[in-house]
# Entry
Amino acid sequence: MKGNLFVVSGPSGAGKGTICKAYVEKHPEVYLSISATTRKPRAEDADGVTYFFIDEDQFRAGIAKDAFLEHAVYCDNYYGTPKEPVMKQLEAGRDVILEIESDGAMQVRSHFPEGVFIFVCPPSIEELNRRLEGRGSETPEEIQARLEKAKSEFPRAKKYNYMLMNDDVDAAVQRLEAIIAAEKCYMPRNIEFINKEFLK
Ligand code: ADP
Ligand code: 5GP
# Structure
């Protein structure tokens, strides 16, 4: 694997999508994986851009074919990362970002311990609630389910390499830039270059 794998996770409404979108707009050289899901598209969604929208039969067929790098059921819908495009980009040396919930992140961690796992944290539960309500994309019941789910995600925070506080979008994007830039300089990721270039 030549590219680096960055996994951005954390509770729904924390701001993962906002941060990742802003990051790849500034850094188009990084590939943001497009997930498959069985959830219904929202007004701002576009098939093949924000997600691949498929039905449950198609999703189960994908699982049977081992087409997903990871997959999870989240608030009654399936979500999964298509394996082939991600592996292709990594093999080509391109860095990849997965923006996924924590069950999926833990699956990826077991297969790719060399990945970088980043937990996006809202400033408070009250603010998380406000952001979910403000986004206006779920019913009050769905927001409640997502808040319940969030409570099961915080105990996993310690399994991540970094906490990315999202108090302010610009500051959070800068923090993500700093994490990614530092990780790319980490010696274990560069020792092959030193060996090849200077120690042959
Ligand atoms: P996630 O992808 O984690 O579910 P989103 O990126 O959709 O979260 O963000 C949830 C809502 O919060 C959106 O309406 C977004 O515009 C808003 N938001 C994101 N980051 C911030 C922030 N730092 N301050 C205020 N609102 C934010
Ligand atoms: P949403 O319905 O708000 O788009 O996404 C719900 C949750 O599913 C979010 O936390 C989002 O990060 C996560 N998610 C999106 N794509 C994937 C994926 O491919 N795999 C997993 N495990 N979670 C995903």
In short: The pocket of adenosine-5'-diphosphate (ligand 1) is lined by residues 12-18, 131, 134-135, 166-169 (CB under 6 Å).
